[in-house]
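agent: user wants the full assembly modeled, not chains individually. Plan: 1) parse entity lines 2) check alphabet per entity 3) run joint structure prediction 4) return tokens. Steps 1-2 passed, two entities, 825 residues total. Proceeding.
--- entities ---
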Amino acid sequence: MLVVALFMLVVAAVALWWLARQGLMEKPWLEESTVGNVPATGASSRPAATIGLGVFLTVAGALFALLVSAYAMRMAMPDWRSLPVPPLLWINTVALAVSSAALQCAQAAARRDDLADVRTGLLAGGAAALVFLVGQLLAWQQLHLLGYFLANNPANSFFYLVTAVHGVHVLGGLVALARTGARAWRGDRRDVESGRLRLSVQLCTLYWHFLLLVWLILLALLTGWADRFAEICSQLLT
Amino acid sequence: MVDVIREPLEPVPPAEVPDVELYHPKSWLTTWVFSQDAKIIAVQYACTALAIGFVALVLSWMMRLQLAFPDDFAFIDATGYYQFITMHGMIMVIYLLTALFLGGFGNYLIPLMLGARDMVFPYVNMLSYWIYLLAVLVLVAGFFAPGGPTGAGWTLYPPQAILSGTPGGREWGIILMLGSLILFIIGFTMGGLNYVVTVLQARARGMTLMRMPLTVWGIFTATVMALLAFPALFVACVMMLIDRLLGTSFFMPALVEMGEQLKYGGGSPILFQHLFWFFGHPEVYIVALPAFGIVSDLISTHARKNIFGYRMMVWAIVGIGALSFVVWAHHMYVSGMNPYFGFFFATTTLIIAIPTAIKVYNWVLTLWRGDIHLNPPMLFALAFIVTFVNGGLTGLFLGNVVVDVPLSDTMFVVAHFHMVMGVAPIFVVFGAIYHWYPKITGRMLNDAMGKIHFWVSFVGAYAIFFPMHYLGLIGVPRRYFELGETAFVPPSAHDLNIFITAAALTVGAAQLLFLFNLIWSLRHGLDAGGNPWRATSLEWQTPTTPPPHGNWGRELPVVYRWAYDYNVPGAAQDFLPQNMPGSGRTG
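--- prediction returned ---
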């Protein structure tokens, strides 16, 4: 449970930092305001949807931290037989990175209100994410053909589980991306002027970067790099 | 006087909001059924939670009948008994208390107390309720599925939860339970996002964090905790569901069942326990923190005094929330662990007593020399304090490894957790309903029926759970269908069981009176007016009662003070509403 404890520590640190800026030392029983002189609430200037996505990413982060924790606990047992990582995963990783980069471009284009580039970016991002998903399914199929079935060994079970949970998150993201795409293609002037389209693209981009980060961590875990990294850390500490 | 504006460019809600910005439902269906109004969603949550709670109450009657009169009732067999235990526990903890405090009170009170029009994502909020309802229906479907619901105990420990010896283990019971929990968590996450972001972003002008009523602080902190803790249950449920359906061995060790080697092997049941309790312990405080907050407001309002030590109360809520994430393994002392870990978890467990004790002191000091009105909300709030102290003290016993080991799996534990997270929060639920019913319906609940309900419930709860501590101390185990010829259990224990059952049936009957009061007062209750308790917080200052969709009419309220200005020296009336401008005094 070390990984999840570390994750919670980071969340607690962020929460503390935020709380410290909220005037927790105030004495509200002494502080009465008069008309025209009310204090600011301390709310963020970001839109509620951005804050909402931030909170959701924290929840999703906790989910993945718990999965990684469970993986690490189980891996320590003697019957763990790591399975070979199909080379296809590297191609998938590149696809997801391309997807993330394309959305970053779309976000930059949305800032300049360049609708054509937004559409291109969204389309490229969506297509690359689809390639990633199909690639993951093919990787499953390859492992299956090699005889690494779901229930053979805990390593296999965990491999299928973590990739599936991540894949479901990508799939959910694609639904949001499709809605954003529909908005971009509709090209409603009100959407562009009110900044609604820009916000949607921005949220999708943030979510995609999160998915990429999580995937890189999972990949490090599945390929055993995380293991070696932990070893080096423990050597350094001792 | 506050003249510090931290960020001049900070967005503040405009005082006047044009009418078009409000979402207007267009039909009966979108007004009352698929409503996006947090208040309607709150009532939907509360009604569903109370309805399923009554099912769990009936299940507890069944258990008590069996314990008092073993083998007298043909419709209760061992299988049924375990199913009643499991469903009673799970419904009460998750589907009643969590849903009612966060989905019910959270939805109703957060926007109103903060001076917002609604939650920030009303559509997602509506989805949250419907997914919750689906989760409840899937759970109830267990009763009608072949083999009945699961009987694995509310902790659903593997490997027994999915083996054939456990009711519902190889049939539909466990699958429906896990599916229902997964749905609940998805639904809750949607609601939780709303509660958190609404508190962060949608407060009225002047409503700083330190001016929020403690109810909102409690619900807000509990929601943050739930958002971080429920993923652990989610992961555990998904993994166990795959173990059960696809034959993996996340939690299943190598097993021989009825002389036959099962295909499972190599899984770790302890891993499940870690995941479960990583959720399970914060869950106690997810239920307790909203109760803490609500009780603070009830006591302050009905004792006509400002809350003592507001800042300390806020810090204690946040502190308890943080600490509750580092105590989970105290539920696993008997599973075996490194002695240093046992020491660590025992220490953190006992440390939680400090912020909790601060809260109890502050409640008592708020009451000290207050103008105490002993109406039903106040009675239930007082009952909460004593019951929580009682349950908390036995928690100190159980937090110590050496004391816990002999008491574990006895009725002592049952008595402890029912006092601390069953009876105590339920008292707050009742107190809160008596307190806010006038705002929700515009009518008062009947006072006489309320007092009868209180006294029977209060005395009855103690008649049930006090003797149960004694049963535990003499070693009566929990979860047993019947004791049979057990040498160390004296015959008097059996008489005590009959007494407890009589008390349990009486307390249950009192809840029917409460239900009757809820329905009867809808038409026959006294007219409440806008602010029958002469309370300060914003929900009592709405232009109309019950508040319409959008809560505030055209103009949003502006907040000039904290929520506890009762009996302010020199003030013309004994309470100053939060939206009443100050006169410029300082100190």
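agent: reporting back. Chain B has a mean pLDDT of 91. The beta strands of chain B are 256-257, 260-261.
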